[in-house]
Structures are given as C-alpha cells and as structure tokens.
Amino acid sequence: VPEIYETGHWEHRAYEVAEDVHGGTLADLGLLADDPGTMAGILREVGGALAALGETGLRHRDLRPGAIL
C-alpha cells in the first residue's frame, strides 16, 4: 500500500501525491491460469480491496490489470 504524502485541491480539482510503488502491475505478471494458488491469492486481495472500497461508498472506476499494482 503506497504512502499518501499530500492531498488537496488545485483549480477546483482534487489531487493526491503518493509514494511511487515499484514491482509492476497485474498485467505485467502475464496469464496465471496455470497457477491456481497465485490466482486465488490475487482474487482474495483484489476482492477484499474492492469490498472495503464499496463499504465506504467508493468505486474504483478503472479496474483493469494495468491499473492494479
């Protein structure tokens, strides 16, 4: 989970400055169909994160492998 350094508004637009997370995206991992253990772990983590967002009324709106670190 990246550290959030600052949040605010500039010219009526919200922004946040966050730590740069290295290690790639889910898209960088490639197809994991032959590794059910890793796939189950990823689904558990992503599902839990989406559930936590949903409980607060937030939606991700860019859910794709290239957007998941």
Question: What attributes characterize this protein structure?
Answer:
69 residues, globular, two-stranded antiparallel sheet, 19% strand
| Biggest sheet: strand arrangement | 1-2
Mean pLDDT: 86
Overall structural class, as computed from helix and strand content, comes to alpha+beta
Low-confidence spans: pLDDT under 50, at least 5 residues?
none
- Principal-axis shape equals globular
Sheet of most strands: 2 strands, antiparallel
Name the beta content range: 15-25%
Termini Cα gap: 9 Å
Give the proportion of residues in helices.
25-40%
Rg computed from alpha carbons, rounded to a whole number of angstroms: 15 Å
Structural notes for this entry:
- The chain has 69 residues and is of the alpha+beta class.
- 35% of the residues lie in helices and 19% in strands.
- It is built from 2 helices and 2 strands, in the order E-E-H-H.
- It has a two-stranded antiparallel ribbon.
- A hairpin with a 2-residue loop joins strand 1 and strand 2.
- It is globular, with a radius of gyration of 15 Å.
Give a brief description.
With 69 residues, the protein is α+β, with helices and mostly antiparallel strands. The protein has 2 helices and 2 strands.
